[in-house]
Structure formats: C-alpha cells, structure tokens
Write a structure and sequence with these properties.
This protein is α/β, with parallel strands linked by helices. It has one domain: Aldolase class I (TIM Barrel), CATH 3.20.20.70. The chain is about 45% helix and about 15% strand. It has 11 helices and 8 strands. Helix 3 links the parallel strand 2 and strand 3. Helix 10 crosses helix 11. It is globular.
C-alpha cells in the first residue's frame, strides 16, 4: 500500500459553526469520507475554536475507536491541547507552530531554537503511545534537528510545491521536497506531507519515495461543492494510488 489519505474535517466544522447547531455533523461526515475510501481523519483544534471545537476531539476518537481508522490530531504546543492529546490518545499527533492571527499554518518549527521547549512535549506524547509528527519546511538541512527532537515523522509543508504546480516551473520546489524527504529518511524519520494539495498536484507528489500519509482538507471541501464529497475523496485516492490525474 502506498501513502494513505487522512481527510481534514476542519472546513466542515467551520461550516457547522456558522449556524451554531450541529449541522453538518462531523461524525457523519467522517463516516462519509471513510466509506468513500479515505484511510484516516485529521482534526486541527485551535485555541480560538474557530472550526474544530475542543469537544469534537474526544467525540471523534470515541466514534472511530475499534474501527482500524487512524485519528490524527494536529495542534500547537499548548498545555491544554497537549493534555487533550494525552487524554484521548489518537494514533498520531502532528505538532504545528501557530502564529497569532494566522489564517492557516504556513511554516515548520524553528529548530534547533525551540528544541528545548518541544522536547518534553514530544516525550510526553510518545509515552502515551501516540506517534508524533512535526510540521517541517521543505529544508533538507532541518531534518537532523527533527530526528534529534525525537519525533517519529515529519510532515513536509507542501504549500510552495502546490503553488508552483500551476503558476511556474515545478522543478525547484519539487526538488526541495524530494531532497527533504531523502534527508528525513536518512535520519530515520517517517514521511508525511500536507498543505494546499489537491487532485492535480497530488499526482506529482504521490511518487515521493517513502511518503506514508497526506492530510488534505480545504481543497477537498472546495471540490466537494462541485462533485460531492465521496467523488472528491475518490479523486484524491486515484491521484495517490496510481498517478491517474482526474481533470474537470
């Protein structure tokens, strides 16, 4: 099996929050994307709860328990969120730096500067039996610092790769991702990727050696407005599995 697809439901939660009721229901939509073939679910709670609420995380964990489906909780290194991860025990926790007021995540961790702060968090989450991934910029030289931190995987930030896909020659950004992946594997790290991936540029990423998981939410939700969520998931799986580009 190649890389797995973890569907990020944050934008579904954002739509729900717009009306203050439980429509759409995150648990129902998790079932829908899993029935369409997705392998896992990603939730990224933020302290402002603008999309995923704190209560969504244990509810989703309970909903997926015993089903062989991985729950990936993305979060910043905040005591409340880390306590939640330890309490819930998802399959994976992806540590992502958060800047005040940001619209979305846009960079990896500043290592080794923040290593002393992050080290105890990584150790605590791993002690709970949760696999730890950390968001990284596509910089090969950074990967040794992540290995020293003790994480199990890195998630390569693919924003620049995705933006270059249709606007400029993809060679330089693709090379950065490939070199970063090779550097991560060379120091014993597993390899995830995410950010601004869609059914088109995912075809170019799927061949990345050692790629284990991609997390996709925004582009999937936007595409679902056109073709429905199940069809949008299947398009991503086709792009991941055999490089079969699906064109509108």
């Amino acid at each position: 099996m190649g890389a797995t697809l973890s569907v990020n439901l944050n934008k579904v939660a954002l739509l729900r929050n717009a009306r203050g009721r439980n429509v759409p229901d995150l648990l129902e939509w998790a079932d829908r994307v899993l029935e369409a073939g997705a392998h896992g679910i990603t939730l990224h709670p933020r302290m402002d709860q603008r999309h995923v609420r704190f209560s969504d995380v244990p509810a989703m964990a309970a909903h997926l328990a015993g089903r062989g489906v991985e729950l990936n909780v993305e979060c910043e290194d905040h005591p409340y969120l880390i306590d939640m991860v330890v309490d819930v025990g998802p399959a994976q926790c992806t540590l992502v730096p958060v800047d005040p007021g940001e619209v979305t995540s846009s960079h990896g961790w500043d290592l080794p500067r923040l290593a002393r702060r992050l080290g105890p968090t990584v150790a605590r989450v791993k002690e709970r039996g949760v696999r730890v991934s950390a968001f990284t910029d596509p910089i090969p030289e950074m990967q040794a610092h992540y290995a020293a931190l003790g994480v199990d995987r890195v998630e390569i930030y693919t924003g620049p790769f995705a933006w270059a896909w249709t606007t400029e020659p993809t060679g330089p950004e693709t090379e950065r991702v490939w070199r970063t992946g090779a550097a991560a594997r060379a120091v014993g790290l597993g390899l995830n990727a995410g950010h601004d991936l869609d059914r088109h540029n995912l075809v170019g990423l799927a061949a990345l050696p050692g790629l284990q998981e991609v997390s996709i939410g925004h582009a999937l939700t936007v595409r679902a407005l056109e073709v429905g969520m199940s069809a949008a998931v299947r398009e991503l799986l086709a792009a991941l599995g055999d490089g079969g580009a699906v064109r509108a």
